[in-house]
């Protein structure tokens, strides 16, 4: 393949993805420390499967990642539009086999109606080594730098529910 036929990496599409901001009854936000990056905390999120609606994908990811099922939550809100982020240079071209420049995400704000015992991160394919309930400040402080703007945007968009 000649180099002239290769698209610039910034011309790659965004990977469609969903995320869940899960609140407990005290208004704290669920975060998990990634198994592959010590010190990197994030909320449940993941790619959409072919043919899935945004809501179905979000509920699937929540169950796959932390074992919480649809009947254990209440959906309070969702982002009005896609929220995007670009991968940093060292990951561009390698993450997701180099097919995407970053992610476009729809996020749901949900409240956990079941207790903490509903959460189990020891899943078939664990993504988190430990978890905690975080404040909004901790949420932004502990996410990887290239996702900070996304998390701040979510806090702003869901502010009326977080007060």
What is the secondary structure topology, with strand pairs?
Layout: E1 14-23, E2 29-34, E3 41-42, E4 45-47, H1 54-66, E5 73-78, E6 83-86, E7 102-112, E8 128-134, H2 136-142, H3 148-157, H4 159-162
Parallel strand pairs: 1-7
Antiparallel strand pairs: 1-4, 2-3, 2-8, 5-7, 6-7
- Overall pLDDT score: 91
CATH superfamily, called what? Nucleoside Triphosphate Pyrophosphohydrolase
Shape, please? globular
How many separate domains make up the residues? 1
User: Helix-strand pattern, N to C?
Assistant: EEEEHEEEEHHH
Share in β-strands: 25-35%
Estimated radius of gyration = 16 Å
Describe the structure.
The protein has 163 residues and is α+β, with helices and mostly antiparallel strands. The protein has one domain (16-158): Nucleoside Triphosphate Pyrophosphohydrolase (Alpha-Beta Complex). The chain has four helices and eight strands. The chain has helices at residues 54-66, 136-142, 148-157, 159-162; strands at residues 14-23, 29-34, 41-42, 45-47, 73-78, 83-86, 102-112, 128-134. Strands 1, 4, 5, 6 and 7 form a five-stranded mixed beta sheet that branches. A three-stranded antiparallel beta sheet has the order 3-2-8. The longest helix has 13 residues, at 54-66. The protein is globular, with a radius of gyration of 16 Å.
């Amino acid at each position: 393949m000649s180099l002239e036929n290769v698209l610039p990496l910034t011309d790659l599409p965004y990977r469609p993805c969903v995320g869940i901001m899960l609140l407990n009854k005290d208004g704290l936000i669920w975060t998990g420390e990634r198994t592959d990056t010590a010190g990197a905390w994030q909320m449940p999120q993941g790619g959409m499967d072919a043919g899935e609606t945004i809501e179905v994908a979000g509920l699937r990811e929540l169950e796959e990642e932390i074992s919480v099922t649809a009947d254990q939550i209440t959906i309070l809100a969702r982002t009005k539009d896609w929220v995007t982020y670009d991968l940093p240079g060292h990951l561009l071209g390698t993450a997701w086999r180099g097919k995407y420049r970053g992610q476009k995400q729809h996020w749901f704000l949900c409240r956990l109606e079941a207790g903490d015992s509903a959460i189990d991160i020891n899943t078939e394919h664990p993504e988190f080594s430990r978890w905690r309930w975080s404040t909004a400040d901790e949420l932004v402080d502990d996410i990887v730098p290239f996702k900070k703007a996304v998390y701040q945007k979510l806090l702003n968009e869901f502010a009326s529910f977080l007060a």
